[in-house]
Amino acid sequence: MDWNIEDFPTDIGEAEALDRCYREDISWIVNQVRNGTSTAVECDKQISQYLYMLIRTRLRNEAEIDCIYVDGRQIPEAVLQANPQAAQAGRLQRMLIHLGYEINNMTEESATIVLPYLDLLTCMGGANDSLTTEARELLPLLYENPRVTLMTFVDPSFTLFDTIDKAFTAKRKLLGIGREALQHLITQRDARKFPKEFNFQRLYQYLSGLNPVRIREVLSRIEGVDFPEDDTQVLRQIRELTIPSETALPNVDLEKDIGGYGDVKKKIQEEVLDILSYRETLTDDGDLKQADEIIPKGMIFWGPPGTGKTYFAKAMATALNATIFIVNGPELKSMWVGKSEENIREVFRKARQSAPSIIVFDELDSFAGRRDRLTGNSVQHSMVNQLLTEMDGFRKEELVFVVGTTNFVESLDQALLRPGRFEMKIEIPSPEKEDRLKILEIYNEKMNLGLSEEELENIASRTGETVDPMTGMPYTGDHMNSICRNLKRIQIREQKKEFTKEDISFALRGGVDKKKLTDEELNVVAYHEAGHAVVATFLQETTSVERISVDSDYGMALGYVKQEEKSSKFLYSRKQLMADMVVLMGGREAEMEFLGDITSGSSNDIERANTLAHHMTSSFGMTDSMGTFVRTRDTSDDTSHQAERVMRILLKNAQKTARKIIQENRNLLEVLAETLKEKKVLEKADYEALVHKTLKDEEIKKKEVDMAQFLKDVDEQVDQTVQD
């Protein structure tokens, strides 16, 4: 639609603005009252008086219906004569006395009683949100005379009790405006404060949640020269006037403040931001409606904790110049009936009034989990229903986005995930090495750490195959932040310009001091880690060794072997999993071969090996004898025992193969263990140099395990066991 300044009126009054925007709604309300239906109008208190005047005029002119206005200020003389105590009562009590008199003495059916402050009389209050004293007195009055027609105005920030709400059969919400109404609220004076070619449709995204009177207030307060060169200043003024004082606009740049995650950024840019940029260029109503239909308003950001799901939402809000409301799922819950749903309604109300906006439900699964008869509770179910109701209640053209973050997307209620609600799902996984490097570069610059490219590369690499020792989870962006903050504290505390390797290791451990090993413990750890490394060297199906440490420089671990990250993060072959199982057995078998005993240091290795064997046998269908069997709680005892026998064969063969590699390479393992005791840490280049100094390439190649033959032998053993 092309708008010219001459098309705009010179002045617009409050009542006129409401009549232009809500004409159809007012007609609907008038018809309900004419038919004798008690009606509740949900609207801002700011406009209730003007609406009442418009409705009263229509009722008088069209149906000769009078309105009795019960607001507690001026009480008719007849009421005072019947109830002399009313003169000394408070305003709420005067309202009740006046209402009771009118209901009990109603003689004309052509009159409507108007309660402008019903919400103040009956809203939820108190520690347990019980009925107020006034509400208890009002309740019987509302149902006492069925011939009485009532009309009330309720502010959306209040919630009525069901018993009171049901007294009003007809209900109408007047919240915000439709896009087509915007043209009726701009005056010629307002239009001159924008550039000459300004597309006034763009204003809707900032004004959609406001009532017409409030919109007129905002537009009338715009200052500046007529017909400025650009719209920067005028839009800034409008944004400042349309957001609550306690709400701040986020300032997170999608590219500058978030490192890596190119695929995630691309999806947000292409699916949301680019469509909205295109939408701002449109003037045709049909084109605008089509654009509104395809913009995803509900999104799920899912992935492990600490990957920046909420941070991405903030970056999206920054790009949209949108307010953001971050709500923690558990905080919405209340033990009082109806309060949880009210909390959700209030969040959406505030978001609509400060549009464009983004509501972020952190830990969405905490209250919006899958509903069925056997799980969850009535409060949780009603909260999901309320969330769905609010999401379905938006106008298509309103720019209010709802983002749910979760670590357990599979647990969410299916109704939320269907198209039209949370229809865009974006996985934000643990960062890859390149992502971690980009994240580190951002923190390095922000904190002025002065880390070199080599040091950044080292940190990014060392946080790959290893996991957070406290949680057992892969390293995330939060870990990168923690590492850099630890380094910054070292820099400030020790006045350092450069960091040592020990400083970086300290930061990688999360600031935990190293464990001090006795000579005997160091000897065990050295042979244990050397066993892992040597076994990995002779298995092509596993990744190469990048770092070996017996310096207790990794969280709670006394030592560790770090291997290169696997190229595939989602699919693993049978050979790869079996090779990993053999490597896990390397530490234990090295202890047995060289020290003649086994320590508790192998407990985690054994646990992980058992997990692999279980998945191969009972989930992945990787053993011929078990076929595509999946083990469940309903599996028979005989089948479970058979699966356990197959697992034992896998584990036993992994153990035997690890011992065979160690026995064939005793010299290499012994040299490696002694070197580790001396140097504590060997990087990839140092380890490879040690291997090639001890063995020739031909020897290494000759001694490599033939995994195909290995698996063939395993299958024969399994088949024989099953037959027996």
Helices, by number, come to 31
CATH architecture of the largest domain: Up-down Bundle
Strand order of the largest sheet: 2-3-4-1-5
| Protein structure class | alpha/beta
Uncertain stretches of 5 or more adjacent residues: none
* Beta content: 5-15%
How are the elements arranged and paired?
Elements lengths: L13 H8 L1 H12 L4 E4 L2 H19 L2 E4 L7 H6 L8 H14 L6 E5 L2 H5 L10 H12 L4 E6 L7 H4 L4 E4 L14 H4 L12 H4 L4 H9 L11 H11 L19 H19 L4 H10 L3 E5 L6 H12 L2 E6 H4 L6 H15 L3 E6 L15 H15 L7 E7 L7 H4 L6 E4 L5 H14 L6 H10 L14 H18 L6 H8 L10 H19 L7 E5 L10 E4 L10 H22 L7 H16 L18 H28 L1 H14 L1 E3 H11 L2 H7 L3 H17 L1
Helix pairs in contact: 1-3, 2-3, 5-7, 13-14, 17-18, 20-21, 20-22, 22-23, 24-25, 24-28, 25-26, 25-27, 26-27, 27-31, 28-29
Describe this structure as you would to a colleague.
This protein has 724 residues and is an alpha/beta fold. It folds into 5 domains: 5-9 and 178-242, no CATH class; 23-173, P-loop containing nucleotide triphosphate hydrolases (Rossmann fold), CATH 3.40.50; 262-427, Rossmann fold (3-Layer(aba) Sandwich); 433-508, Helicase, Ruva Protein, domain 3; 519-723, Methane Monooxygenase Hydroxylase, Chain G, domain 1, CATH 1.20.58. It is 51% helix and 9% strand. The chain has 31 helices and 13 strands. It has a 5-stranded parallel beta sheet with strand order 2-3-4-1-5, with helices on both faces. Strands 7-8-9-6-10 form a 5-stranded parallel beta sheet, sandwiched between helices. The protein has a 3-stranded antiparallel beta sheet with strand order 12-11-13. The longest helix is centred in the C-terminal third of the chain and has 28 residues, at 637-664. The protein is elongated, with a radius of gyration of 36 Å.
